[in-house]
What does this fold into?
Amino acid sequence: MNLYFDNSSTSFPKPKAVADAMSDFMQHVGGTYGRAAYQRIWQTSSIVEDCRELLAETLETKASDNIFFTLNATHALNTLIKGLCKPGCHIITSPLEHNAVARPLYLLQEQGIIEWDIAEADADGKIKVDKLKSQLQKNTSLVIINHTSNVTGVTQPIKDIKKTIGGIKLLVDATQSIGCRPIGVDANDIDMVAFTGHKMLFGPTGTGGFFIKNPNMIDSFIQGGTGSNSLSYEMPHFTPDKFEAGTQNMVGIAGLNAALSNTPEPLHTRNDFLELIEKLEEIPHINVMKANNPEDQGRLFSITHTSRTPSEVAHTLYNEYEIETRAGLHCSPMAHQFYGTAPVGTCRISVSPFHSTDDFDELISALKAIK
Amino acid sequence: MTETIIILQNIRQVIKTEKWCVNNLVDHKIVPVPKEYSSECGMCILIQSEIPESLISYLEESNFTFQIKDYKTA
It folds into this structure.
């Protein structure tokens, strides 16, 4: 049985090839990226560049030159937000942002650097695209959208949003959607995407990155050695060097590279997953928080209980049934305030391709029994 | 024999150019950048024949920053 239902925190298990690649790298490859001229460095650097190309395929862009590695999505989002938010600019976000977006914006707002408004949304959190245009101001320079909510799985219509905001920059936080949903960077004319490697891409923790259509829009977030232009105390202006100072997480990137080439075959269908939600909705003491339209549903959702707190539900699921879920605010107080579930939050269920319908049945039985 | 090297701006450009050479059957080697051309410890591409026009076109179309130099092994 696979009773791990906390894949939105980090996916588990990973494809075997991920650990194999990381072990092989540690035992037989080693080396750093582009810092010397022997075979080991060449092999290491090739892994990094292969991974960058695979990420470009995943993001559906031809501009692999504009993809950069970071330690995680939070690092990527901070690089983009702090690089883009100039004094006097107005920012609009969805009401469902993670603290990786909300905290940098709050800091910038408190410092008097930005104005920040929340886009109007339906009850499930889906942005009212037809209302968005009226919220734009002359100084609106950036719209940030959490593509798939890490609380309810509601997925936002980024294509329509970009069409509506036109030349205003769109930053998509694809932390929960990458690997699950097409992002269509080129087709949808997306300006920026921040992503993580360790959730639905099935890479290891410590991997992530971002895409930016025009790398000249922002400065480097950190400065340091790049193995290029070393006589200059200025950071290189060319990419990827501009955004990749310091030794990268080579072991992690080797794992992510293997993950991208070994996407697991799902043990359940999309309909099986939607049936899981339907069956949970039939349980009288369980309330399911999800997208209104099944087409907008990511691979996660939340539940609340009529008489128990989310923490009690998660604790009982684990102690009595060995089912692992995550209760609380999920680092998304904005979303919980929007849904009216703050401060206790919800109990989140997040599935992966490694779940079978038997695993779903186990979860349903357990939740039926927790009255 | 003509021996020239292509020095590129960074390792990513070297790797992409090397892949182009493999895919287009252009004989090449990866060698350290000679110290008279750069103090960096990076790699460049050695071509032991005339550099094909198609390779130059690839480098230009890719917007790579590159230099073509005589290779000196002394």
About this structure: The interface with chain A takes residues 9-12, 15-16, 30-33, 39-43, 65 of chain B (CB under 8 Å). The CA atoms of residues 6 and 68 of chain B lie 5 Å apart. Chain B has a mean pLDDT of 89.
